[in-house]
TrEMBL record:
Residues 167-408 form the Radical SAM core domain. One of its GO terms (molecular function) is catalytic activity. One of its GO terms (cellular component) is cytoplasm. This is Oxygen-independent coproporphyrinogen-3 oxidase. GO terms for biological process: porphyrin-containing compound biosynthetic process. NCBIfam families: PRK08207.1-4, rSAM_HemZ.
Amino acid sequence: MQQLNVNEQFPQDWIRMFTHLANLFFEQSKIGTETVDEATINIRFFEQFEEKSPSISAQLQWNGQRHTAQFAEDALETDEKELLRQKKRMYSHVLLEVLEQATGMVQEWGILTGIRPTKLYHMYRQEGKSVEEALALLRNRHRVSARKSDLIAQIADVQLNALPDLYSLKQEVSIYIGIPFCPTKCAYCTFPAYAIHRKNGRVENFLDGLHEEMRVIGDWLKEHDIRITTIYFGGGTPTSIEADEMDALYQTMVDSFPHMEQVREVTVEAGRPDTITIPKLEVLKKWGIDRISVNPQSYTDETLKAIGRHHSVQETIDKYWLSREQGMRNINMDLIIGLPNEGLAEFEHSLAETEKMQPESLTIHTLSFKRASEMTRNKDKYQVADRKTVGQMMKRGEEWAKDNGYIPYYLYRQKNILGNLENVGYSKPGEESLYNILIMEEAQTIIGLGCGASSKFMDPATGKLTQFHNPKEPAAYILGFEDAIDRKIAYLDGLFPSAESIK
Ligand SMILES: C[S@@+](CC[C@H](N)C(=O)[O-])C[C@H]1O[C@@H](n2cnc3c(N)ncnc32)[C@H](O)[C@@H]1O
Ligand code: SF4
């Protein structure tokens, strides 16, 4: 535990922010107002105002060394609340700088927390800032490295190429459908994913609820003449149910949702290779669905065993080619950097195997220790690569993607992610998943149906977002889905006027 001592009492949200930044440098840190021991880091902040422009400086003392940083800006807003927010950001800025000096570590994402880097960049561009101005803000205001800032700008360009109307899709919605079952639960996962066992009618009762949600929301969309941009079946593993159950779901989708012929993309995240069968692929084909994922995570059998994924590497490869033969035109694959006992060599091997298949897209995740996962609960049992190695793997992934004709098209970061790195989605040009872009950039309302599905309602006029979560557990869902439907309709009624009232 690294103790940091600051020279005044700060509000709780400031302390949380300081702790979060300090945790980027130390395994665990605690902010207080006392020097606890010799190893305590002492930090003093100073605040100055010149003609209403704030200037913040920090002085850090540790191990007999002193480091200082200063940051000044024009006051951006006259509003008290906004000024406070600006000051908070400026304090983060100087704190990060002195910690970087003291530890010799560089944080490529600077002080960015809680906001998607690409979303911030799009926001600046929508405000009318030039590419150069937006990049300068990322670098100077948020301390993002030049390399990451350029990556963000590149991704934003690709997104606008794939969805030229990205900024004006607020009048449409996308649909997420969550199927909460998997063959087994993976050790790192906290998604709504329950080992499927066909007892007590749990799966059937869940599916009854889901059909009902699809029908009611579909009716509402028809009544309000609202178009759907994309539909995404995720989970869990949406191919963990039987082929005839999948068939019935797609029937309800086509019967209930408006203007299906204009939906730009329907994806089924098959995911687990051990759920993919010829009858299921035939059902997908029957409904014109040819975008799926076949997720290896790793190409090392021992790793798959260690994370509780009960399929072999060979099965991933076989199911990939089977899906191809059965007409799947757009296949995504997910890899994770930093899985237990994996280093650069294992990751190189995963890339070499992926190279033989050339899927249309590849998402490279970095392992994140999610609070409720088995891996976090038993952290000592899992040996993972150090910060330097995961950084090298990420760089290697970038090079490999470039050499194989992939471009980065979405990026997101998570809490407790190894090396404070990120997850990056790569695709062959023109094969980007539109749904992934829309959800990452929070460009429109996403209506979540099914277990654990989260809905994000966006006010088309103001862009304001409101989140709503469906119950996560199947048993709670079965009891609560009707209420969840009512609440979602109430949100939608508040945001979109009825077709009648427009006439
Ligand atoms: C909704 S999950 C599941 C997809 C599918 N059920 C499967 O496992 O193949 C989507 C992806 O997120 C990634 N993922 C999930 N939990 C993660 C974690 N704790 N750290 C890093 N990546 C994670 C995995 O690569 C996974 O394929
Ligand atoms: S199969 Fe996918 S959703 Fe299911 S537990 Fe594993 S990572 Fe999570």
